[in-house]
Amino acid sequence: xxxxxxxxxVAGLPCVATFLTQGKRVYGCEVHHLESVRDNLSEWLxxxxxxxxxxxxxxxxxxxxxxxxxxxxxxDLALMAGTIQLALQTLELRHHGDIAIRDALIQExxxxxxx
Length: 115
Description:
Layout: H1 3-11, H2 16-22, E1 30-33, E2 46-49, H3 51-55, H4 60-72, H5 76-106
Antiparallel strand pairs: 1-2
Helix pairs in contact: 2-5
């Protein structure tokens, strides 16, 4: 997996802030870089945020970093840890889906043409 694959995966995850604060999975996210200086390593430090949580008046850019963390009690470490948790759950579901398809093919319960 390269950084483009990682950012694509993160963009498809639910909003990490909403997930951590409310336990809800809200999709349609933008990728937020935790580091303002961009280099090869910082491209891995991205989290999924809805447009409201990212750029809205109650979001990270709207409240400022300090205001966001004060309001939601979420710092960079919590956001990154939550993103990794969501990514691993997503990859695990994809993996299990692949196994189910493979097993069905082996058992000839579905044909490859139906995939």
